[in-house]
Amino acid sequence: MIVGRDHRKGEFDISDSLLRVERTAAGPRALRRGFLALPDVVQQGRLIVESQVLQWGLAEETAEDAVLIASELLTNAVRATPHQPIALRMALAGDGLRVEVWDSSPERPRVSTPDLSMPEEAPADDAPDPGGWGMRIVASLAREHGVRTEFEGKSVWAVLKAERR
C-alpha cells in the first residue's frame, strides 16, 4: 500500500493512517504512518520515532537525533500543507536509519538564515515563530539528506548512522 496519494487513483488512501511496522522484501525494517497535517502530529511523530528506534535496538543518541530530524521534517510538512495528508516513514537497513516525510506540496524546503537579532520589545504572544533552523539541523545530524518528487508532492529524507545499543 502506498502512503499518501495512491498513484492508481490520485487520491489519499485513509487506510495508510494506521501505524504499520514491516519487514520489506528488500530487507530493512520499515514503518509508515499517515497523518493530517495538524500541529499536534509533530508530537505524535516524535513519540512514534523514539519508540520505534528504541524497539529496533538502536542507541539512545540515534533515537534523539532521529526524533529531532522527524520533528523538523514534520513541522515543515505541517506548515507547507495544513490540513492535508502527510506521511512519516522510517526504514532500518544495515547501519543506516532513514527518516522521511511526504507531503503534497511540490515546493522544496529552503535553508534560511534564522533571525538572531535581539528584539527591542517583547514579542507578542501570538507572534509567529521566526524559524530558519530546521534544514540546518537536519543537515548537521544526517549522513546524507535530500528531497525527491513523489506522488504529486515531495518526500524530504535524511539518513543517520544507526548506532546499536
From TrEMBL:
Q: Where is this region: Disordered?
A: 104-134
Q: Does the keyword Kinase apply?
A: yes
Please give the superkingdom of this protein's source: Bacteria
Species name: Actinomadura livida
Domain annotation Histidine kinase/HSP90-like ATPase: ranges: 37-159
Q: Where are the transmembrane segments?
A: none
Q: Which UniProt keywords apply?
A: Kinase, Serine/threonine-protein kinase, Transferase
Give yes or no: UniProt keyword Transferase.
Answer: yes
Listed Pfam families: HATPase_c_2
Q: What is this protein called?
A: Histidine kinase/HSP90-like ATPase domain-containing protein
Q: Which InterPro entries match?
A: Anti-sigma-factor_SerPK (IPR050267), HATPase_C_sf (IPR036890), HATPase_dom (IPR003594)
